[in-house]
Design brief:
With about 250 residues, the chain is of the alpha/beta class. The chain contains 8 helices and 12 strands. The chain has a 5-stranded parallel sheet with strand order 2-1-3-4-5, with helices on both faces. Strands 6-7-8-9 form a 4-stranded antiparallel sheet, with helices on one face. A 3-stranded antiparallel sheet has the order 10-12-11. A hairpin with a 5-residue loop joins strand 8 and strand 9. The chain starts with 5 loop residues before the first strand and ends in a 5-residue tail after the last strand.
Amino acid sequence: MPQPARLLVVDDDASVRDMLREYMGSHGFTVSEAESGPQMREVLDRELPDVVLLDVRLPGEDGLSLARFLRERYDVGIIMVTASGDVVDRVVGLEVGADDYVAKPFDPRELLARIKSVLRRMQAKPEPGAAPAAVPPSSAPAPLSPIVTRQAVGRCSIDLDARRLFDQDGGELPLTAMEFDLLKVFLLNPNRVLSRDQLLLNTRNREWEPFDRSIDIRIGRLRRKIEPDPASEPRFIRTVRNAGYVFVPDGR
């Protein structure tokens, strides 16, 4: 039988932790708890969870700093819990590498659906050495040719097996999970316009919503890494007005 998914709840509110332990436990999850950053690290030393539910407003080290810590060191799903209507926290959380967010007060059923969605995306990631899959025809056209393991992308090169990005001098550049997924989708679909909806469906398994700037933020970060002159008009990842983005491999 498959092992139950492991959920780590990091929240300084004991009533929230108790509620989630009971609710998620009743749906087959193994739930661990922490009320602070130090406690979270103690749990991580004992056992690595599949998904971390991370409150933004924590005493001491806040949730955004902890999300950055997690993303740099562990391959886990991260869902940020933000104050209702706090768009800044949501945007920053996605920018530091969170997979999703939910606002307080939340419906446990919605949170359960988001956790399952993050787990599905993680399970769908190819194993090292496996050939990456193309974007489904219903979302975007199939690629013209098979993707290779090491490929040039702008002024950089990306190792798809190792999920690592390198500059022209061979130095490694930091790359979040979503940035890697975006680059892979672009590489599989060169010279084809992809809408925000298509990009979100194929990197985060959810549809684009009005005022959702998570894709635009990631595109901006990627441009600063791969474009020869980030301050000028983009050559490799171009904006197509009212349509989305297109990756132009030769930058011409």
